[in-house]
Design brief:
By secondary structure, the chain is mostly beta strands. The protein has 6 helices and 34 strands. The longest helix is centred in the N-terminal third of the chain and has 20 residues.
Length: 642
């Protein structure tokens, strides 16, 4: 049960009456009535009767005052997952971790994960995506509260249109075949209304705001509202852009065992760059019902719709946009270190998969380790995809050495174009996606849909001793074809012939002479680079974190780090060379030195951030899309109750 228990508990009938009264008064609270009920001091009651009578009177007076702060409900949750760790390839952030990271967007939040490439087409308001191990279209799946946020702009989700307002947890599984990014909305851990305000400003006319309000006892259920906006004038004040998002949720509860939730989210991006459509709005809404069927067993059914609206009046975007629906069933079991979950999703439209089935399960044994297995199957206009992933890891043997490994293989499907109001069919008479013709240089023409066959292996070990943690792994990835991301910067780019690549990666954390200061870093090295796969990807940072005072009311974080990679080719063809061939475009090496400082005083956080403070010029992820030379921003985050 997610509602906390106090020293006094009210009868269920009183709780129902209290809930009904709160629903009737809406935004008006019962605070004045509660204060009247509390005007009679406990000492005067005790003076008129013995302690037994005083206790009985306290029981009668307590329900209203206690109920307001202790009675709240959440939808049943799906339990069981692979634990976080570099060995398992999983990273997650809870709400405090999201704030401590100082990220303004989802792409910024995951940017420091080892071996991950963030592909930004410019400043705020422009497209952005992520890639790992050279994955392209179909290489990322994103979920929010179990609803799949399917790509509407191309082969992967444009992260510029996925917001963080009202998000309480983010989790990324860095699969070698496919990345899985999951987000969960706010849950209640207190019966009082909750507010979070994040506001800041900085260089390049940057303004940042993110606000969340949640009331667990409003309108006969619970309500959540969120708003976020980031805007900038861009490099040189010539590339204005912004992101504006909204979140609204209403839930009805029958205790913690049954719930119904209506969730609405919208994100609008704008930019003054002629290279990209603007403005674009993504809207997602879902209606879900979730029930605890038995101890450790949870089921859910949902329906929803996603839309892609382009208001750009230019001819190139005349047909872009549209809406597609999604329905799904989910069933999850978890008990005593075992978990299993099955999910079925059905989509509308020929340019989306007809259906998808995902199965996952695993076991964890304290002192030994764990293993997990994942199976995914999909149907795409007569074509099918199927993939598997196996992972295993051990607890530290003799408290020092642990082993881990993963094996992934299968086929992954992807569109390469955005949703279109006038759906364009593949060049095939039987309705199936046509095989793309291959040219002399190994480049294929661009179909609307493609499937790539991908296999990958990762084997490694981790050593922990006296606060020092060191890990290493060997990597091997093989694909029969490479699909572009399909977002605007590389939209229309051709498929490429696949390749087999080998590499290795290391990660470590080393304590310093200062108890709360550590040095962290990672390096991923490949024998041969490829598209979206630089030969070398590295991370490094000095990290400090300490809580002061016996009350814990003062906390300090700071980080000084670097993110970088060697030159990288992307799925964009360059001009013909002297031999008449068109090689891929290459962006120069990337190196961003950054700093973060955050101070928490009770529930107020003051933050300061710097990006590329050594002012390295020509930072870019796509050819010609130069990122801001430097940016500094600062502001505060304030958590409030009632």
């Amino acid at each position: 049960m997610s509602h906390s228990s106090g020293p006094l508990s009210a009868p269920r009938s009183l709780l129902r009456v209290g809930a009904l009264l709160r629903a009737l008064v809406g935004v008006l609270s019962l605070g004045p009535l509660a204060s009247l009920a509390g005007q009679e001091p406990q000492d005067s009651l005790a003076a008129q009767a013995d302690s037994l009578v005083a206790d009985s009177l306290a029981l009668e007076l307590a329900p209203d005052s206690v109920e307001a702060d202790t009675i709240f409900y959440n939808l049943p949750s799906f339990e069981g997952e692979v634990p976080d760790g570099w060995g398992t390839g999983v990273w997650s952030w809870d709400q405090s971790g999201i704030m401590a990271a100082g990220a303004n967007t989802l792409a910024e939040l995951v940017a420091e994960i080892p071996g991950l490439i963030v592909l930004a087409a410019g400043d705020y308001g422009t497209p952005s995506a992520i890639s790992a191990f050279g994955s392209g279209g179909g290489g990322v799946r994103v979920f929010r509260d179990g609803f799949e946020i399917f790509p509407l702009e191309g082969g992967v989700v444009d992260l510029a249109r996925i917001g963080l307002a009202g998000i309480r947890r983010v989790r990324l599984e860095r699969g070698m075949g496919q990345l899985r990014l999951e987000l969960w909305s706010h849950v209640y851990d207190d019966g009082r209304p909750y507010s979070l305000v994040e506001a800041g400003t900085g260089d390049l006319g940057t303004n940042i705001f993110r606000g969340t309000f949640a009331d667990p006892t409003a309108l006969g259920g619970s309500v959540g509202v969120g708003l976020e906006r980031v805007d900038t004038r861009g490099p040189g004040g010539r590339e204005k852009g912004n992101r504006t998002g909204n979140w609204l949720r209403y839930q009805m509860h029958r205790g913690d065992d049954v719930g119904l939730a209506l969730d609405f989210r919208r994100m609008r991006t704008e930019s003054d760059l002629p290279d990209f459509a603007s403005p674009i709005t993504r809207t997602d809404w879902t209606l879900r019902g979730r029930m605890r069927l038995a101890e450790g067993l949870v089921g859910e059914a949902y329906t929803g719709k996603s839309s892609h609206d382009v208001d750009d009046q230019r001819d190139a975007y005349e047909l872009e946009g549209g809406s597609r629906s999604q329905q799904g069933l989910r069933l999850g079991f978890s008990r005593s270190g075992l978990w299993a979950r099955g999910e079925y999703r059905r989509f509308s439209g020929d340019d989306l998969p007809a259906n998808r089935i995902d199965l996952t399960g695993g076991a964890i044994r304290q002192g030994i380790g764990g293993l997990s297995a994942d199976l995914a199957r999909g149907s795409w206009s007569g074509n099918s995809t199927s993939s598997t992933r196996m992972r295993a890891w051990t607890e530290p043997l003799l408290g020092v050495l642990s082993l881990f490994g993963s094996r992934e293989s299968g086929t992954y499907g992807s569109r390469t174009m955005p949703l279109l109001d006038a759906v364009l069919l593949p060049d095939s008479t039987d309705g199936e996606a046509a095989e793309p013709p291959e040219t002399e240089d190994g480049v294929t023409a661009v179909p609307l849909f493609g499937i790539t066959d991908r296999r990958a292996t990762r084997l490694g070990a981790a050593l922990s001793w006296r606060g020092v943690s060191l890990s290493g792994a060997v990597l091997e990835v093989e694909s029969d074809s490479l699909i572009p991301l399909g977002i605007e910067p590389d939209r229309g780019s051709p498929f490429l012939a696949g390749a087999k690549r080998s590499g290795w990666e290391v990660w470590g954390r080393i304590p310093t002479f200062w108890e709360h200061l550590s040095l962290e870093g990672s390096l991923q090295q490949w024998e041969e680079p490829g598209p979206y796969l630089p030969e070398q990807i590295y991370r490094g940072a000095l990290v400090f974190h300490k809580t002061y005072l016996e009350t814990g009311n003062f906390e300090l974080w700071w980080k000084l780090g670097v993110r970088g990679n060697s030159p990288m080719s992307v799925h964009i063809l360059a001009e013909e060379d002297e031999d008449g061939l068109r090689p891929l475009e290459t962006v120069p090496f990337y190196q961003n030195w950054y700093g973060r400082i955050q101070i928490r005083i009770v529930t107020v956080q003051i933050f300061i951030g710097w990006d590329n403070f050594i002012r390295r010029r020509n930072l870019q992820n796509f050819p010609g899309r130069v990122l801001p030379i430097t940016r500094t921003w600062y502001g505060l985050r304030w958590t409030m109750w009632n």
